Amino acid sequence: EVRLVESGGGSVQPGGSLTLSCTSSGFDLSKTAMSWLRQAPGKGLEWVSAIAYDGVNKYYEKFVKGRFTISRDSTKNTLYLQMDNLKPEDTAVYYCAEGYYSIIQDYFNWGQGTQVTVSS
To answer: What is the Cα 75 distance to its own chain's centre?
Structure first.
């Protein structure tokens, strides 16, 4: 069974930082592209960031570029999302997902999510 498990969410004040982690069982996430998605209250699922299978090329949604950093540790089979200078509009449930697709509906494997709340 292929599973993805996110952790590291929490509540922070604006300007704060969090690091999300995603571990996998059932496949080696260092050998495939991986993405972070999020769903804000009352909104649809949106793509946030992705890392290519080679681990070199990284992509970011324009509203998080310069604040978020995606990375992975192949020795721990773990994907990360370092989030700095968090804003209230970053409040959402964050999911890690297998692959990197231009259409959000093409994502087929993601975890249960971790809640991030940014509020003063």
So the answer is: 19
